Amino acid sequence: MPKPFPPPSPWASCGAGHVAVYGTLRAGGINDIARLDPDIVCMGHTMLTGTLYDLDWYPGLQLQGTQQVLAEVYPIDEALEQAMDRIEGIWPTDVGEYTKQVLPLLVDCVDGSQRSLNVLVYEALPPTVSGKPVLAVHDWLAWYRSQGRTYPGDRFALNTQKS
């Protein structure tokens, strides 16, 4: 019998003004961040350090390890952060796949400058990646496309409680 969902928790912002996306929220992914905010503009790129895992049609990044993983950086407000929390299965019910981390990162901005910013990163929790294949790639979206894989549909895909 599936476990019942716990009651919704109150939502809280992480306080970061930017997010680094490395998977399906990247431009061209099934959950392309521009679908949440059509006026959003990528401000640059950064490299996240950790270990990248294959979770089927989306990746999971653990921030422990030495692998460099490409991420796009976007400005966010609370409404966009809340929408991303829903996609990542953190709110209104935490399904236990990801947690939010705020990291100081050096961002290579599209205007050619570099800026140090506090950036929200969605980190996969240990049970999420346990037993999953490690991907020795720095660009998950390019890798995913090169594998000939397809997404489960053409609409936003949300993480859901697994039975």
Automatic annotation (TrEMBL):
Transmembrane segments: none annotated. InterPro entries: AIG2-like_dom, GGCT-like, GGCT-like_sf. Residues 19-141 form the Gamma-glutamylcyclotransferase AIG2-like domain. Gene3D superfamilies: Gamma-glutamyl cyclotransferase-like. Pfam families: GGACT. This is Gamma-glutamylcyclotransferase (GGCT)/AIG2-like uncharacterized protein YtfP.
